Amino acid sequence: MTAVHRGLVSRLTRRTLVRANGCGLSVRRLLMAVVAAASLGGLIDAAVVAPTQAQSFTYNPLPPRPKPPKAANDNQMLVQATEVDYDYNNSRVSAVGNVQLFYNGTSVEADRVIYDQKTKRLHAEGNIRMTDADGKITYAEIMDLSDDYRDGFVDSLRVDTADQTRMAASRADRSSGNYTVFENGVYTACAPCKDDPKKPPLWQVKGARIIHDQQEKMLYFETAQLEFFGVPLAYMPYFSTPDPTVKRKSGFLMPGYFPGTTNTGFGVEVPYYWAIAPDMDATITPRFMTRQGVMLQGEFRQRLIDGAYQIRAYGIDQLDPGAFAGQPGDRQFRGAVDTKGQFALNDKWVWGWDGVLMSDYYFFSDYRLYQYRDPLGSFLLLPTEALSQLYLTGVGNRSFFDARTMYWLSYSGNQSQVPIVYPVIDYSNVLNYPVFGGEFSYKTNFVNLSRDDAVFDPITTVANTNGLCTTASADPLARMPSQCLLRGFPGTYTRLTAEAQWRKSFTDPFGQIWTPFASLRADAINSSVSNQPGVSNYLPIGDTQAFRLMPTVGLEYRYPFINIQPWGSTTVEPIAQIIIRPNETYAGKLPNEDAQSMVFDASNLFSVDKFSGYDRVEGGGRANVGVQSTTQFDKGGAVKVLFGESYHLFGLNSFAVQDAINTGINSGLDKPRSDYVASASYSPNSTYTFSVRSRMDEQTWNVQRFEAEGRANFNRWSVSVLYGNYAAQPELGYLTRREGILTSGSLKVANNWVVSGSARWDLEANKINQYVLGAGYVDDCFVLAANYVTSYSYSAGTTPPVLSHAFMFQIGLRTLATTSTTSSSAGLQ
């Protein structure tokens, strides 16, 4: 019996008097056995296991059930019946004919209810139906229980729960106030057939006996079998599971198969879950491998009043280290520890950490742990480093603070080329009161980092094939700006940035919007660049102290024209922005760590500073002009179009300055007149969405960057297509045009049959280099699906990704289990 049901029974012991036929009648026990029967039915939840998220297919959503009206919890019982009799001689109370009892949101219906005060037993019979406050419905034909609910039986028990699962038993017996035995129990999460409710459901679990031990809070199943359409397909003579009142219980979890590699051998994982206390637990998972022996994995979790943390540890004493000869894994003991946690100081501040420590950087990759556990996930997000950090974050109504130290553990073995950040601090705030009638805000950024060795990236075919960007190359062209980019400098870098901004909008009598703005930014920089081969070709060697000041004033002008028609309205808005400021000082002569990405498009056309980080700052006079049109339709839908261009007016063009990584070169802003940028989006309704983003050469109108995306989502099918076309950017290492299509779709070919697929087509190579094909049967209680996937498998080090093929099979029984099996070139997962 669940805790909820126990509480309900305990409340029923309060005496409530109901008068019928002029006789005083104590009926506080009339409902007890029926409530107890519902408690018996409540054990249906024991079969419920939290459903696992399916990889590709999920159950059809269940139709919502109307919530029962909330009843007053006044401990008053209402009894209605055609006849209520009191037998003084035999001390029996009988309610006969359409008996209805209502108590604290629970209703009971039966043909006849009899309570014997001498034997203290309650007997109910005929069309018993009980609906509790949560919407669970229990049916029975005969019920006979003692008034203390220690002994008794219920015949023809059937339960429908609020989550639309169902259970039935020919009989339920209770003894010693602890044991309840269900005879011939049946459980399913499938709805009965509408045309023939007696027809077996798609699947059901049958058990000759289901025994509930209330003290141990365990359920024991005897002679259980899984049936599909009434045909037994799986048999298990005995198994046990915790009852519904148990949220967590120690025990073995479902074993797993590890496909392994030739270096590790295949293996089996047998996880054991340990419920240590209400606030902490652990999972211990030994992996038994044919070649390397036993690897122990353990995870400890604890939730505290203000947060939670977890620690995972791995360790193996390898039986055959020579299998990894010539690799970092050629050692006796290998292991790792990773941890993370987050705690709230109050409703605005949190602090936390992430940490990773490994014996060698190939460990996670060799044994498919951590980020490498999911091959599809590692394809989408290539794990090149493991991040360890300690952070403090605060969020106010109009302010933000974040401070953290970061250490990346390289999976490539080039640890000396990965920076250590200690720390990086950001703070921003917008004052909630006007300053000179306008909005005033300010922000600061502080960073301190160091790196041992330089990182060079090739940008030409010659540099790539001849290794000109390695520190060991003695070629005269080695590590030259014409052949390589200095992606990361060796040494130490410290910068403090502070910026204050003010802006105010005016609308004149003609409807024109004028927005003057001003800002002042200051940067204090100290860099110490190590004298390593080739570095002097990009940055000054030694210590450099610099102070960079950037005052900015500007004016933005908008003049919206509105045209209202019977079908909707259109707003056409010319926009012009002029910015006056001095040149960027030390342009290209300082390290650039956080502003290496530069994409010019319609989204940042009117940004005052178009650099993505603080290490570079835009200087010189600039004008940004464009026109924006927005059309709103009365019947729904909108069209938004933006077209514009940027002009360098005077001074030094920051985007034309060649720095260590050529930021701004080939961006479309590195000339007096920028490329044209445009965007358009159309959403006629919730079914369709279309968007286009482009950048065109300002002289030839050749497409430099183009993206088009379309989505459609109907009841039976959905499709999405993304097309990208990007011109060559040789100064950044992109030597040829890149063009491709990424598409995905699904189609419901029948009521319960779905096919899906996705593909990535490299148009330049005229090759589909990734695709997924799947088909499955899906309903409200069952999933059966198969997928064929091509994707890239990544490993640590400098080994390039390898295209692999995999077949995935998935089966799911709602509330019981969802499992998937993958067969690939690496084996079975």
What are the SSEs and their pairings?
Layout: H1 3-12, E1 17-20, E2 23-26, H2 32-42, E3 77-80, E4 83-87, E5 92-103, E6 106-116, E7 121-131, E8 137-146, E9 152-160, E10 166-175, E11 179-188, E12 203-213, E13 218-228, E14 231-242, E15 251-252, E16 256-258, E17 267-269, E18 272-277, E19 280-289, E20 293-304, E21 307-317, E22 333-344, E23 349-358, H3 363-366, H4 375-380, E24 385-395, E25 399-410, E26 420-430, E27 439-451, E28 455-458, H5 461-466, E29 484-488, E30 491-503, E31 506-507, E32 513-529, E33 542-558, E34 561-565, E35 568-580, E36 621-633, E37 638-650, E38 676-683, E39 688-696, E40 703-713, E41 717-726, E42 738-748, E43 753-762, E44 767-778, E45 782-793, E46 802-813, E47 817-824, E48 827-828
Would you mind describing this structure in some detail?
The chain is mostly beta strands. Among the domains are: 78-252, lipopolysaccharide transport protein A fold, CATH 2.60.450.10; 737-828, no CATH class. Helix content is 4%, strand content 54%. The strands form 4 sheets. The chain has a 32-stranded antiparallel sheet that branches. Helix 1 packs antiparallel against helix 2 (32-42). It is globular.
